[in-house]
């Protein structure tokens, strides 16, 4: 019996295995060579995401004023003299620094050491120690804060918002090991006009009384060096403090730029409030009067309307940025915001619990911007889930953007913004777990630059608008009203009109309930208010019979808050 089998060509299989082996080596070399542009490679050839000690030494490190060793601490009062240990600080304090410290604080002397920076007096020489500061005077009692107090004068913020310094130019930042996400955030903040104007014109370091590390102080030093340096430098003094900024951020790891931006803004807001006793001490209404709140703060409204009784419930939430998702066929920023503000029906397994009906009913929900911020930060949610789940489709965005159509009141043409910064995330194979960040910024003369870590290149606006943006930063053409309740004037006019109409036909009864400032602030920040019906939502309801119409507005009369004005309209019988 003969066995019949397929002939085996050993030479063919040997050549095939060798060919696949060399192709694998070539592909691995190509991947490493491409990734080396974006990541630090370790000595073993792999991606080095660990914390390396040599990177922890800042390029801007200064020497100890006592022993000359590398300094890791600084005087908490003057922020100018540095030490390597608490023993050296005590020694210098007892040898006479306690008498010189006040002089350092007033004159804002430069640190002692070889890396002393020589700043131009034309740019920073106009600071005045007598000007108002982010922090209160020592004589001011923290317990004396009342809901009507103001932590930072809005008139001063307006001056910073329109501040113009055409001499400033972008400066690159070296990559300290997977620090591109932090570099782009620092670059965008470095061209946020009111923040830069405050730190360079007034200064925060001389009046800061924090005993620990302060982001405001460090960022002020960062701006001073960036605006005086002709070459890229390392932002290690900030990068090494990422765990202090918030969350689980760590040096040497790949992080999300949007997450860092949120943490940085929250930290700067906390610094503003800590000077007055902290968030738990400062009334909610007063928290809206910090510099950071003036810059980034806005008000988001969530409106839910019952389709049975037509009752409308509004919830207000303070926002520091706007995150929108990319759904379906959306190809522009406007379409993404249309989806963000579109009505959502609460039905089926997601019924709404109506307080008036005391039952779970069908309702419609809509998000809108109640009050637009002065600096609008929009994040396009490209990371949907999974290691290769990034959405790389291009979403067009305009240079001039009108937020009016997405406002609660529809806008009156005053909520117009100009683009000044764009953050882009580059990746391979739609990977969401690694990549590289670059940014585009516009200087105060209107010139656009592409910044890739230490590389700075002048580009045209068309190049910016063609990018697959991850984050967009817009600045208002005109500042908004000082209060987050920027529609109070409009509501007051509407109320006056209603009162006039009611006095003429006698068919409207009104009642005014006066409340204290604290309750009003709480309701506007995170509270719930019931008011007028939305006819589009009621149209979908099966029960469209006549029902009371409730209108709730928040107005200000002679400095006092009127919490709610409810007007019940009953159909008159002929």
Automatic annotation (TrEMBL):
GO terms for biological process: protein deubiquitination; proteolysis. It catalyses: Thiol-dependent hydrolysis of ester, thioester, amide, peptide and isopeptide bonds formed by the C-terminal Gly of ubiquitin (a 76-residue protein attached to proteins as an intracellular targeting signal). GO terms for cellular component: cytosol; nucleus. The chain crosses the membrane at residues 12-31. The keyword Zinc applies. Residues 541-556 have a biased composition (Low complexity). InterPro entries: Papain-like_cys_pep_sf (IPR038765), Peptidase_C19 (IPR050164), Peptidase_C19_UCH (IPR001394), USP (IPR028889), USP_CS (IPR018200), Znf_MYND (IPR002893). This is ubiquitinyl hydrolase 1. It comes from Microthlaspi erraticum.
């Amino acid at each position: 019996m003969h066995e019949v089998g397929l002939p085996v060509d050993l030479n063919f299989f040997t050549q095939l295995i060798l060919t696949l082996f060399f192709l694998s080596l070539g592909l691995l070399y190509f991947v490493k060579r491409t990734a080396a542009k974006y990541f630090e490679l370790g000595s073993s050839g792999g991606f080095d995401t660990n914390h390396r000690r040599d990177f922890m030494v800042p390029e801007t490190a200064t020497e100890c004023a006592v022993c000359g060793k590398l300094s890791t601490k600084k005087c908490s009062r003057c922020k100018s003299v540095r030490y390597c240990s608490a023993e050296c600080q005590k020694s210098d304090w007892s040898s006479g620094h306690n008498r010189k410290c006040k002089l350092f604080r007033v004159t804002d002397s430069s640190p002692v050491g070889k890396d002393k920076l020589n700043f131009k007096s034309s740019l920073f020489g106009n600071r005045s120690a007598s000007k108002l500061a982010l922090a209160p005077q020592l004589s001011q009692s923290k317990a004396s804060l009342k809901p009507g107090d103001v932590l930072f004068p809005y008139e001063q913020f307006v001056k910073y918002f329109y501040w113009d310094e055409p001499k400033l130019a972008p400066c690159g930042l070296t990559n300290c090991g997977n620090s591109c996400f932090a570099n782009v955030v620092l670059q965008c903040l470095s061209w946020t006009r009111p923040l830069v104007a405050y730190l360079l014109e007034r200064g925060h370091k001389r009046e800061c009384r924090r005993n620990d590390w302060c982001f405001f102080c460090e960022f002020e030093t960062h701006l001073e060096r960036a605006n005086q340096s002709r070459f890229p430098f390392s932002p290690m003094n900030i990068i090494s403090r990422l765990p202090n900024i918030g969350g689980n951020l760590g040096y040497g790891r790949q992080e999300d730029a949007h997450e860092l931006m949120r943490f940085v803004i929250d930290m700067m807001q906390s610094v503003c409030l800590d000077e007055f006793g902290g968030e738990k001490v400062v009334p909610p209404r007063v928290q809206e009067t910090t510099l950071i709140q003036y810059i980034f703060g806005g008000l988001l409204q969530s409106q839910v309307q019952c389709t049975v009784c037509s009752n409308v419930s509004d919830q207000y939430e303070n926002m520091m940025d706007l995150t929108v998702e990319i759904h379906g066929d959306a190809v522009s920023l406007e379409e993404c915001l249309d989806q963000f503000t579109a009505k959502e029906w609460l039905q089926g397994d997601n019924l709404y619990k109506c307080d008036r009906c005391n039952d779970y009913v069908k309702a419609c929900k809509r998000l809108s911007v109640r009050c637009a911020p002065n600096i609008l930060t929009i994040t396009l949610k490209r990371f949907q889930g999974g290691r290769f789940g990034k959405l790389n489709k291009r979403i067009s965005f305009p240079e001039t953007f009108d937020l009016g159509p997405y406002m609660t009141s529809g806008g009156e043409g005053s909520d117009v913004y100009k683009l000044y910064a764009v953050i882009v995330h580059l990746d391979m194979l739609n990977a969401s777990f690694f990549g590289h960040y670059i940014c585009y910024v516009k200087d105060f003369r209107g010139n656009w630059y592409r910044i890739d870590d230490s590389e700075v290149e002048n580009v045209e606006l068309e190049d910016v608008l063609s990018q697959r943006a991850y984050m967009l930063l817009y600045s208002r053409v005109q500042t908004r009203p000082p209060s987050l309740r920027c529609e109070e004037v409009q509501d007051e006019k509407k109320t006056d009109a209603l009162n006039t109409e009611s006095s003429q036909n006698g068919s409207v009864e009104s009642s005014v309930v006066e409340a204290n400032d604290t309750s009003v602030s709480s309701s506007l920040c995170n509270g719930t208010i019931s008011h007028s019906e939305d006819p589009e939502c009621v149209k979908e309801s099966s029960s469209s019979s006549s029902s009371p119409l409730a209108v709730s507005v928040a107005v200000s009369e002679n400095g006092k808050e009127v919490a709610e004005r409810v007007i019940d309209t009953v159909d008159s019988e002929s």
